[in-house]
Amino acid sequence: MKNKIECLAVLLSVLCVSTLTGCGCSSSLKSSSVSEEGSSSAPSSVSSEAPAVYFTVKFLNWDDMVLLDNVQVKQGENAIYTGDTPTREGDAQSHYSFTGWDKSLENIQADTTFTAQFVQSVNTYTVTFKNYDGTVLDTQTVNYGGSATYSKETPKREEDLSFGYFEGWDKVAENVTADLTVTAKFFYVNLTENSDGTLNITKARDEKKTFTEFNVPSSYKGKNITTIGESAIGYISSLVTITLPETITSLGDYCFTSDSKLENLSLPSSLKSLGDFIISDDKLVKMNVKDDMNYLGNENDKYMIAVSRVTGTTATTFTIDDTTRFLAANAFEQIRPLGGVTLPKGLLSIGRQCFYYTGLNQLIIPSSVTYIGKDAFCYTTSYLYFEATEPGANWNSGWSNNHSDIFIFFYSETQKTGNYWHYVNGVVTKWNS
Which residues face 301 on adjacent strands? Predict the structure, then answer.
């Protein structure tokens, strides 16, 4: 019996040890420990997970300027940039575009600095071609430093009472470094309508100052151009040649004055009225010369206008060509003494100051003369015999200013008293002589 009890105790002891070992208890737990106060302590627990690891991430721009700093990223995770998109300032020639970072943002395993990356691209610019009125004719895109060439329809300038000739552009579209607007430039002409429905040129303007030859058209939009007004084609420094059509009947004062390069002037045979001082320099404009006089006209009508005595000559007696219709302003100015001037029967006009301050003794003025300019005989000592019977309606009121030494006679076959004259055997004879 005693042996059975001992065997049972051993069996229980073994069973207890096996139970405690299977529960993960250490061998020290085989016997209970007792505190100083006599109470037993609970077993301690142990974790199987390691602590999380974080790395510091920094984002820099291309120039090392800090964009985002001290970003904490858990080991193995991806870095995320939350700032504004990085930029890099360009210049006139090129610009920069952000493409990303110099390293991958994935699977961070250490403290990391990322630097922004950019791609450089050449700038492009827009060249806009416009007409005089702002109408867009063409647009082209060119690279920095490139050029644009206009290849579409030639720009036009046509309005109700204005037309132009295209000269070019106000700027050269070469070496383009910014957006550029190029505007068409013209030699253009403004018109007004005369009372008879024909047209008058009031002003011509050369915007680019390169227009050298102006062939005045005979008509515009079905209406003849018949007159050119005062100073209308004057003060154009580029013009070398001007040709007028056979529709022109009248030229205003100063109409070609100060055209400083004008060499060739072709006038129409249709001309009936001539203003004063139509040109500035009779030494520049090519003249037709005959018997010591300079003339203007055209190829078939060379002596239409008697302009001046030929430079360098000392002639004092002149016979004006039979085809001449106009004596220009200042034609004989200050020729003293002026021995004699024979005028043609078809003469129409005597210009301003034509005989100013001359010592002319006698002059027969044909009845065909319809215009005499101001001061035409100012300070002239002369006997003037007009084949007209009275002053013309279109003679300037000051045609004989300061004429205390001028003796004026009008033609009459019947009026025998006063300042009248007639022919006796082809000789000028005063009635009261």
Answer: none
For residue 16, tell me if it sits in a domain: no
Q: Is residue 406 part of a domain?
A: yes
For residue range 300-322, what is the model confidence (pLDDT) as tens digits?
Answer: 999 999 999 998 899 999 999 99
Contacts of 248 (CB under 8 A, 6+ apart): 216, 225, 226, 227, 228, 267, 268, 270, 271
pTM for this model (two decimals)? 0.75
What is the span of the domain harbouring residue 62?
A: 54-120
Q: Is the dihedral of CA 219, 224, 226, 227 positive or negative?
A: negative
- Residue 422 falls inside a structural domain: yes
Q: Which of these, 202, 198, 172, lies nearest to 190 by C-alpha position?
A: 202
| Strand 241-243 relative to strand 213-215, pairing | parallel
From the list 340, 299, 347, 348, the residue with the least C-alpha distance to 322 is 347
**207 and 165 in one domain?**
no
Domain boundary (152, 186, 220) is at 186
As a whole number of angstroms, the distance between CA 296 and CA 329 comes to 13
Strands 223-228 and 199-206: parallel
User: Is residue 417 domain-resident?
Assistant: yes
Q: Write down which residue in 224, 257, 286 finishes a domain.
A: 286
Determine how β-strand 349-350 pairs with β-strand 371-372: parallel
Return the number of other C-beta atoms located less than 10 Å from residue 207's C-beta: 18
Structural domains counted in the chain: 4
**Are both 333 and 383 inside the same structural domain?**
yes
- What percentage of the chain has pLDDT greater than the value 70? 88
* Confidence band, pLDDT 50/70/90 cuts, at residue 160: very high
